[in-house]
Specification:
11 helices, alpha/beta, 287 residues, TIM Barrel, 14% strand, five-stranded parallel β-sheet, 11 strands
Length: 287
């Protein structure tokens, strides 16, 4: 088995990612909120206003990002999803209606996956190779379901600073995926989400404070040769002052020698060329 390494000349990697939840992020847990116009417009801000602003920033900075899109969002906001595609960004899978699969049966989980795939194909003509679990809440069976349907990578787990090879199950010879880990500190949800009576952290942080946090984590992961994966939501980080903070972070990234800023699929393709030992995850014994 080989050791982990980045491409020649690369010290560390970074990925800019967006979860385009829109209304699905609320409706999955609170379907009754569909009647709350203010809440629905808060969520729809993402595809209607946030996505165009973020696409302009990414174009100015020459960054190719990954957008994780629920199938429901593609159906509700097809023009936004097609704009993401037409701008050359990667579209990855994020469930159908942001369903928390840890509550689902295996059959339901697979049905959500397939329904989301069908919607993305019908609306944008794309077949994603990457997956991120809604709420980052996955199950021990999820990797096998993803592998069975041809996915190349997942980005839902939190146990490493760099991508690794993930075994789809504990069985000998099980298929594998690339895992590109994430963390809560690099999610704008914990910084900006505020929906009274529904969800969110209940705190709206200053973008200056968030920029400081993310810059510190970026610099530390670069020093460790890690992979900085930033997770944002267009209805949050697409707001004007927050998008400005993101652009400043992208400026900082561009100034770091040897930092490879890439879409998730590009990172996964590189890691797949390494002869890494597969990591097997099994439930711990409950005392």
């Amino acid at each position: 088995m080989g050791d982990f390494h980045w491409p020649d000349g690369v010290r560390a990697a970074a990925a800019i990612t967006f979860d385009v939840d829109a209304e699905s992020g609320v409706l999955a847990d609170a379907p009754e909120a569909a009647s709350r116009l203010s809440v629905m417009t808060h969520q729809a801000y993402g595809p209607r206003t946030g996505v165009p602003r973020l696409l302009r920033i990414l174009e100015r900075r020459g960054v190719r990002a990954t957008f994780f899109v629920p199938g429901y969002t593609a159906e509700r906001h097809p023009d936004a999803v097609r704009a993401i595609r037409d701008a050359g960004h990667e579209i990855a899978h994020h469930g159908y209606c942001h369903e928390p699969v840890f509550r689902a049966t295996a059959e339901e989980e697979e049905r959500y996956l397939l329904r989301g795939l069908e919607a993305l194909d019908r609306v944008a003509g794309v077949r994603p190779v990457g997956w991120r679990a809604p709420w980052w809440e996955t199950t021990y069976r999820t990797p096998a379901i993803l592998a069975r349907h041809g996915f190349r990578y997942d980005s839902s787990l939190m146990d490493a600073d760099r991508p690794y090879l993930l075994a789809a199950s504990a069985e000998a010879g099980a298929p594998t995926l690339i895992e590109i880990p994430i963390q809560w500190a690099l999610d704008d949800w914990e910084q900006y989400a505020f929906l009274p009576g529904l969800t969110g952290s209940g705190v709206i942080e200053s973008p200056a404070k968030v920029l400081e946090l993310w810059t510190l984590e970026l610099e530390a992961l670069v020093a460790e040769g890690g992979c900085f994966v930033l997770t944002m939501h267009p209805f949050l980080s697409g707001r004007a002052s927050r998008a400005t903070a993101l652009e400043r972070l992208l400026e900082r990234m561009a100034a770091i020698p040897g930092l490879w800023v890439a879409a998730m699929g590009e990172i996964a393709r590189h890691v797949a060329t390494l002869d890494l030992p597969p990591v097997v995850h099994e439930p711990p014994p409950v005392p």
